[in-house]
Amino acid sequence: MPPPAAVPALGFMLDVSRGRVPTMPALFRLADRLRLLGFTQLQLYVEHTFAFPGHEDAWRGASPLTAEEIRALDAHCRSRGVELVPNLNSFGHVERWLKHEKYRRLAECPDGFYHELFKMRRPAGTFFPCEETADFMGALYREYLPHFSSDKFNVGGDEPWELGLGRSRERCAALGKRAVYVEHMLRLKKRAEACGKKIMFWADVLLGDGDGNARGGEIPAALLDGAVPVIWGYEADHPFDAQCARVRAALEKTGGSGSFTVAPGTSAWLSFGTRLSNALANIRAAFSAAEKWRAGGVLLTTWGDAGYHNPPAANLLPLISCAALARGDPAPETPADFAPALEKMGVPAAETLAEALFSFGKLDDFISKKIPNRSWIREAFFAKGEAFEKLAADVPAAEIAAAAEENARVLKLLGGVPASCPEAAELSVAAEMTAAALRRADAFLRGDAPARAAAETEAAGPLREKFAAAWRLSCREGGLAESLSFF
């Protein structure tokens, strides 16, 4: 398909750190599909899943990517006109490093912290902003970045939750959290530039004042010079327009030569792939703002929070939607709009799979009770005890019945897709898990304890094994045990 026209660059970021690390054939297949759709960039979101020499404690058991694999994927992408951009979170979301005694000295809160948003204690997950932690990351950069031919590098930097709550408390009180954040990000920028890379970074802290007001404060110019902020947001009503306007205005003040990227999401995480309506609306809003405010690119993201139970197949329709909007075409709205792209990818029974993906993706629409950034259906599968009963208590039985009927139709559709199709196999397991979640909720509402117990027994046994088998179709063993621990 033609390259992007509505935006200069179109990328896809795949989380390979929250459990699922794809096999090399799966990564090669992804790169081929991105080329067919007209994408120009691929990023693999890494926290600890690269085999850094001397840091085996961090990646042991995770089936990490190796230097040889990165070089092979880079060459494969390059031969297809897709730029493999390195992505390594460098400030927050480093729990999988800081849980080891070896790295404890680098933590902002070595003993953990109380998370105000989630109302619970969490383990250390943010580096203490100082030269020592910047040097630590600089050493990792020197090991990691030479394997990529791209001149770009996403250093992350999102959600440093405990910044200012521990060792940086006094400095943050004196200067403000955002000033301390920018100071440390500039340290990371310097070390990335020493490796020949221009940084990208998540813009959430830049857009807030860093002290609890997500909309306040003037955007500091220091971090915009020679760096690309990535404005991310994942709900249908995310204020992309206002945020892009602020970043564009800040860039104009610095001479107007800089750029920014807009990042919507697949909405697949914390679901089985049933939040497609939110994803498509979120993507449309992102492209509208990107075009209006002259963004340098759009980066579609997908994540694997809390066990990565979302099947890779759930990314397909959001990818196709992004590709269409990037070309300046109308947004796909029906299964028939998505089927031609699936056929180009070589997916068997493309029309049937498009209808199954589309219908399955709409299942959360049947449930009027909404949970921000996650699926009610997934929660109904995994929630335990009182949490489950509270979740299901006020949902009308008619909604659950309608969702169950549509899900049964999806399973019937998938029966018409060749068994050799991995996407159909993944989606079938997700649909079976959805059926169990809906049976469980229905049984609770009817007061049928045996039926509820039967649904829970199925989830703990047969579905657990089917999920593991589907995982292994495209992903490595590392992370699977953690994912299964939720069942």
UniProtKB/TrEMBL annotation:
Domain of life: Bacteria
Glycoside hydrolase family 20 catalytic domain ranges (all copies): 64-208
SUPFAM superfamilies: (Trans)glycosidases
InterPro entries the UniProt entry points to: GH, Glyco_hydro_20_cat, HEXDC-like
Gene Ontology biological process terms, A to Z: carbohydrate metabolic process
Record flagged with keyword Hydrolase: yes
GO molecular function: beta-N-acetylhexosaminidase activity
Keywords of the record: Hydrolase
Family matches, as Pfam families: Glyco_hydro_20 (PF00728)
Descriptive protein name: Beta-N-acetylhexosaminidase
Source organism: Candidatus Spyradosoma merdigallinarum
